[in-house]
Amino acid sequence: MLLLSPITLVAAATLLFAIHLIRRLTSPLSKIPGPAVSKFTSLVLKWKEIKALRTVYIHQLHQQYGPVVRIAPNEVSFTSWEALKEIYCSGGSGYDKTEFYDLFKIYGRRTMFTTLNKADHAKRKRILADRYANSNVMKSASVTGVQERSSKFVRRCTSAPGGVSDIFMALHAYACDCITHHLFHPYGTDCITKKEDEEMMHQVAADDSLQNRLISHYAPTLHRLFSRVLYLFAKPRETPLADDYVLETSQLSGTASFTLMSRFDEKTGDLDYIDKAAECLDHMAAGIDTTGDGLCFLLWELSQPRSLGIQRKLAEELRANPETPFDKLPFLDAVVCEGLRCFPPIPMSLPRYVPQGGRSIDGFWLPEKTIVSCQAYSVHRLNNEIFPDGDVFNPERWLELEGDADRRRIQFAFSNGGRGCVGKHLALIEMKTLLRDVYSKYSTTPHESMQEEAMAMSDQLISARPLGQKCLLRFHPLDVDGEKVKM
Ligand code: HEM
């Protein structure tokens, strides 16, 4: 009975609290700059995540505390090249991923993206990487497919009443058609013109499962016990149309030789049918939001009055060089690089564990299993010596010879090292092809009804999209001199 007396309970609680406090204050991380609250709890960080504001919160902490910030008792964020290289490139593919990536398992299976350690990742990458190599995505059948979809995108936008189109939806449709072309041709989608395909894509792009998935990650028991109640205000991820499309399409034969599906006819390792479908669905989701949102933010920026000169210069380059391949146009490249720098579709931290034995990063000793990360949004905006005026959209900076290697090295939109984006070359083809098709014939302006806030960055689990999920632009045809045709 004595054990349960209020005095004993209070004393025990005080002792536990004191131990917790001493541990926090004497932790090897205690010298790392950051807000006091981060020493004791991760609740503030989690709250920001739930509110879709994690990236902006961490960015503000870096602005206040510098390039190394303790963001939670066991978590540290960095912005320097040295830290980025250590975390993501050491030993080839950097440190192991954390269990955060369990949230992205598909059909209950791990994909290349969700493998946590180096060995599992390398095994899977040996099978898949071939079809995303530049030499494969640049094959004529692959590039022609992207070109056809880009032309359809332009037709859809410019034939809309008044030349006003919601490019958020149209760009996601384009990205879905391009990635499914690369996975399954001739069984890819046609979201740009077919309503039923667009509906399937919309389930993926408009996913609102951030809160539900975060709760399942941080409080799995609570999530299990109260999933029905939770369903009422925090929806789980549900993409039945895409799930079915991929499961069915993965069983078809006769896919073109540049596709990922055809790769499985050559090399499957120990992958079964569900593993292959899981990879395809993962790449499909990865390809829709990233390319779709990245292009959406970029076209929005180009359409602002402040970017008129940039749009004009881009149009001049494109119109003067109609026969030059899209990857040989310096200003187009600069616009894409600057778009990815200012609006990285995955702007947030990519969490990794400090390996066994601990490591020193940026002058701070970190014990093993500390969670460390860099976020592209801050890496791109806070390295002032490499990107002066980091908040300003200025493609010209990519044309300067001086500092070129530094800029390209620290460009983190596709991550870096062996776990960097496998779809990078495909994404760049999609972006450049579409920009070329739009700005060689049209100029764009924001529709009067659009508010700046609708284009604020809203964090989802692994990518960020415009808050309003809508982006209305007006497309103005250009005349032979590159001037807007009077309507
Ligand atoms: C502008 C477009 C894109 C951007 C900015 C982007 C960005 C990224 C980033 C930052 C990562 C690392 C994620 C992490 O470590 O957590 C990644 C990985 C990945 N991306 Fe992309 N991505 C884009 C387009 C695509 C496309 C079109 C595909 C289609 C296949 C794709 C497939 C993947 C896959 C499979 C991984 C995992 C790679 C691995 O773990 O080895 N991405 N991407």
TrEMBL record:
Superkingdom field: Eukaryota
One Gene Ontology term of the molecular function aspect: heme binding
Binding site for heme: C421
InterPro entries found in the cross-reference section: Cyt_P450, Cyt_P450_CS, Cyt_P450_E_grp-I, Cyt_P450_sf, Cytochrome_P450_monoxygenase
Cofactor(s) essential for the protein: heme
Gene3D superfamilies: Cytochrome P450 (1.10.630.10)
The protein, known as: Cytochrome P450
Organism of derivation: Trichoderma simmonsii
